[in-house]
Amino acid sequence: MLGHNRKMSGAECLADMLKGYGVTHVFHVPAVLRKTFAVMESRTDIKRLHVHGEKAAAYMADGYARASGKPGLCMAQVIGALNLAAGLRDAWLAHSPVIAMTGGREPKTKFRKVYQEIDDVPAFEPVTKFNATVDDVARFPDMVRQAFRVATSGTPGPVHLQFRGNEGQVDAEEAEMEPLCEPQFSRVPPFRPAADEASVLAALKVLQNAERPVIVAGGGVRASGAAAELVALAEALQIPVATSLNGKDAIPGTHPLSVGVVGTYSRESANRVVNRADLVCFVGTETGGMTTHFWAVPKIGTAAIQIDIDPEALGRNYPLEAAVNGDAKVTLARMVAAADRGSAGKRKAWVAEAQKICQEWAAKHKAALTSDAAPIRPERICHELTRHVPDNGIVVVDTGHAGMWMGGMYDLTSPAQSYMRSAGHLGWAFPAGLGAKCASPERPVVTFTGDAGLWYHIAEIETAARWGINAVTVVNNNSSGNQSKRGFDRVYGGTQTEQARELWTFSKVNFAKIAEDMGAVGIRVEKPSELGGAITTALKANRPVIIDVVTEIDALAPLAVT
Ligand SMILES: Cc1ncc(C[n+]2csc(CCOP(=O)(O)OP(=O)(O)O)c2C)c(N)n1
Fold first, then answer.
1. Pocket around ligand 1 at a 6 A CB cut-off
2. Which residues pair with 176 in a beta bridge?
3. Per-residue confidence of the chain (562 residues) as pLDDT tens digits?
4. Cα–Cα distance measured from residue 562 to residue 551, given in angstroms and rounded to the nearest whole number
5. Phi and psi of 426, rounded to 5°?
6. DSSP E strands, 235-303
7. Cα-to-centroid distance, 421 and ligand 1 (Å)
8. Rounded to an integer, what distance in angstroms lies between the CA atom of residue 44 and that of residue 18?
9. CA angle in degrees (0–180, nearest 5) for 448-443-66
10. Is 53 exposed, middle or buried (0-12, 13-18, 19+ CB in 10 A)?
């Protein structure tokens, strides 16, 4: 193709290209691309993780991608393809660059009721940016390049390639090919498009004129690696910062200008500050339902400006006084350079007001955060994690109550820490935490999940033990999915029948014991005083650890304020 073609098999080409793109791990359930997996062993150092389910494989690839910014690879044969597609749903919602490869159909036998075969391609359509078939081995190089190009560029997201043959046996065929890679697309972001200067200065002017502005930072800030520039702008102009759940690591919770996570799974102080602001500056956020508490925080009609790499995001939910289309890091850096620091003085009273609101929040929840009650309060777990997660830690959080507890009650304490959360799928966090640890073995990974969340992919404890994936998983074990309690109270007219508990409770199980049986370390914590020590011990263990924390079944996270 480019003059350096040589005869090689699809398997050799794919293995060489994955190596060329810097892929270190592939998460799969056999058997797909068998020949590729075989040649990977001699041609690359790529680790081939055989896991217990396709959805978990996709979640691990997603955790790997979010922790590293590099595409995460997951693979399944034709019968597992839809299980894999289900696992791309969270990556799609979170804009995570996951590349899924599956086996597909053979033209010679299509429509003849081949064993295990349906047309899987349409099912990938709603969860991918690019969904394509590779029918001829000569197409391996350009299709793999396109997969990496699409996954990482613009707003990142998942990609699916279906290879001919139920196990993708097209990889065993040969053609004249060149396994050319484009390293630029081996991580997010491949490009940093600068916004046009006039739009940046216009937005800055609106921001500087505001007396009570607030920044709402989203996942686009983490995708762009723009946290330092964001905090520098907030400091230069003295503007309080709220974040979405997906953007929680844009600013440490301990920073004097941080007011917390805004929206539905949120911290009261953030919602109060955002709703008192005279201007909201959205950066790298979709302004979706979760971040805005279904467009009540801030109310539609509040003056707003927005910075995003995706022009279609600008003004979707809030009419804008200024819109800036560009990469967050370069845009914010330009704003910092042009900022009139003298304008900060007029926001002294506003910053003091925001800080008072934060202090009121801390005073209101101090008793729960430091509670000595047993069964243990989830707030106390969050508080101990704030105290014990190391400066370079990666925190991975499940959805539902886990998202509410950690989004609202946990604080990052260092700009070097990362925070990743499920975009809505219960059970995501445990395998995602394992994927994150594969991507960053040198960083401590601490996952927070409820017991309902852990049950989904509990089999992967064995994978963690087999592969030495030394992530620490903290389980808020109330033997139930008690986030559902409030909703069932409501439909039972205020008080549930005793039998209604069958709708949301489980048996009492000791996950520490299960972890030990599966080859991991299990620590059971029943007293709050033992929590801090358990986290410290787990982080030193150099083994996969499950910390099973016995918690209060009646503890319900505070609801969002408007
Ligand atoms: C795939 C999926 N199915 C269902 C839900 C709805 N859901 C949200 S939270 C929850 C229960 C959570 O239980 P657990 O993880 O034990 O936390 P707890 O509420 O007990 O603190 C459920 C079923 C979901 N978010 N995702």
1. 399-402, 424-426, 450-453, 476, 478, 480-484
2. 7
3. 456 789 999 999 999 999 999 999 999 999 999 999 999 999 999 999 999 999 999 999 999 999 999 999 999 999 999 999 999 999 999 999 999 999 999 999 999 999 999 999 999 999 999 999 999 999 999 999 999 999 999 999 999 999 999 999 999 999 999 999 999 999 999 999 999 999 999 999 999 999 999 999 999 999 999 999 999 999 999 999 999 999 999 999 999 999 999 999 999 999 999 999 999 999 999 999 999 999 999 999 999 999 999 999 999 999 999 999 999 999 999 999 999 999 999 999 999 999 999 999 999 999 999 999 999 999 999 999 999 999 999 999 999 999 999 999 999 999 999 999 999 999 999 999 999 999 999 999 999 999 999 999 999 999 999 999 999 999 999 999 999 999 999 999 999 999 999 999 999 999 999 999 999 999 999 999 999 999 999 999 999 999 999 999 999 999 999 9
4. 29
5. -65, 135
6. 241-243, 258-261, 279-283
7. 14
8. 9
9. 65
10. buried
Spatial distance between the Cα atoms of 64 and 100, rounded to a whole number of angstroms: 13
Compute CA distances 515 → 323, 427, 505, 521, whole Å: 50, 17, 21, 6
CA 250 to each of CA 219, 283, 392, 413: distance values in angstroms, whole numbers, following the listed order: 8, 10, 14, 12
- Cα atoms in the 13 Å half-sphere on the side-chain side of 414: 12
- Residue 458 Cα to ligand 1 midpoint, Å, equals 15
pTM for this prediction: 0.97
Sign of CA dihedral 19, 24, 29, 30: positive
State the distance from the centre of ligand 1 to the C-alpha of 450, rounded, in angstroms: 8
Asked if residue 51 lies in contact with residue 27, where contact means CB atoms within 8 angstroms, the answer is: yes
CA of 534 to the centre of ligand 1 (A): 25
Taking each helix axis from N to C terminus, what angle separates 378-388 and 348-369, rounded to the nearest 10 degrees? 120
DSSP track, 339-383: --GGGGGGGHHHHHHHHHHHHHHHHHHHHHHT---SSBPHHHHHH
Nearest protein Cα to ligand 1, atom 20? 481
